[in-house]
Amino acid sequence: MLQILADGLIIGSVVSLGAIGLSMTLSIVRFSNFSHGELLGWGAYLALVASTALNATSAAWSVPIGPFSFGWGLLLALVLACGLTALLAFGLDAILFKRLRKQGSITLVIASFGAALALRNLLLFWQGGIPRYYSENLQIAIAFLPRSTWGGLRATPDQLLVLALALLTVTGLHFFLQRSTLGRAMRATALNPGLARVTGIDPERVLRATWLMGGVLAAIAGVFAGLTVQMRPTMGVDLLLPLFAAVILGGIGSIWGAVLGGFVVGMAESVSITLVGAEYRSAAAFVVLIAILMVRPRGLFGERN
Fold first, then answer.
1. What average pLDDT is seen over the chain?
2. Lower Cβ count inside 10 Å, N or C end of the chain?
3. How open is the CA angle 41-52-48, to the nearest 5 degrees?
């Protein structure tokens, strides 16, 4: 039982980070961006390429840090991947979405489908279809509780670090949105774009910040997914449905709703893997989504329009 809970928290931490960026796009840019999942995949592979290049320059970059499976090279590569993925998201908006914004949300959704297909196939052409890993170092899960205590509890150091960094990232984003001028402008634009424009908020500045922050969060989520499981060119589309489920479950526009929705989705997938098999994990997440929406149609933290 405790192991299922721990696995659900780890899966949910990855889903939550990706869901936050998707929720920001839905509430501020106001369309469902189906290419957001591919940003996770590109972020993961950009970090892989950067860490491989750093490791090639010096073996010191690949020396594992303490109990973890990776070295300082991956941490630096994560920073580089965040910047490059943010630029990729910003470029998609500048080249594609910005030109179609006046055509309505349906046009933007169709365009995001096309962008997702293009990004996925470009990644497949570039990296091939073989699963990849950041490190070949094997980790042994640490036993925190014996099996006699509710089935025991085991986790690898990498998994614990991913969970801790995900919570730290979400907390930092919360304080940014609550305390900074740009964060308050983003929240105002999400609530009422017309009124925000009247009060002097630059909508283009807010949109640029939204795309950049969404790209950064997607890169972090992609690297965490690759670190705890593996990387595949199709990982973006595999994570896309859980991301949307988390956003809708938490309530569109709510940061903490997306976080809680991500953890609920992660828990549902963890339970389904144990009970019925990994092939039904996405179906289990949507069963939970439907059940909760029947009670709260606006989501857990959704507000009445």
1. 87
2. C
3. 10
Using one digit for the tens of pLDDT, what is the confidence trace for 55-109?
999 889 989 888 888 899 999 999 999 999 999 999 999 999 988 888 878 899 9
Query: Could you tell me if residue 177 is inside a domain?
Result: yes
Give how many domains the chain has, as a whole number.
Answer: 1
User: CA 58 → CA 49, 138, 248, distances in Å?
Assistant: 15, 21, 45
The parent domain of residue 75 ranges over 2-135+142-295
The domain that contains 218 carries what CATH number?
1.10.3470
- Residue 304 falls within a domain, yes or no? no
Task: Report how far residue 279's alpha carbon sits from residue 277's, in angstroms, rounded to the nearest whole number.
Answer: 6
The Cα 249–Cα 292 span in angstroms is 7
CB-count exposure of residue 129 (10 Å: 0-12, 13-18, 19+): exposed
Containing 56, the helix (H) or strand (E) segment is helix 36-57
Quote the percentage of the chain above a pLDDT of 90: 38
Q: Is the pLDDT of residue 197 over 60?
A: yes
Contact assessment for residue 218 and residue 43, using Cβ atoms and an 8 Å cutoff: yes
The pTM of the full predicted model, rounded to 2 decimals, is 0.91
- Answer whether 24's CB lies under 8 Å from 259's CB: no
- The two tokens of residue 206 are 């807010």
Residues 69, 16, 47: CA angle, nearest 5 degrees: 40
Q: Does residue 278 lie in a domain region?
A: yes
Question: Would you say residue 303 lies in a domain?
Answer: no
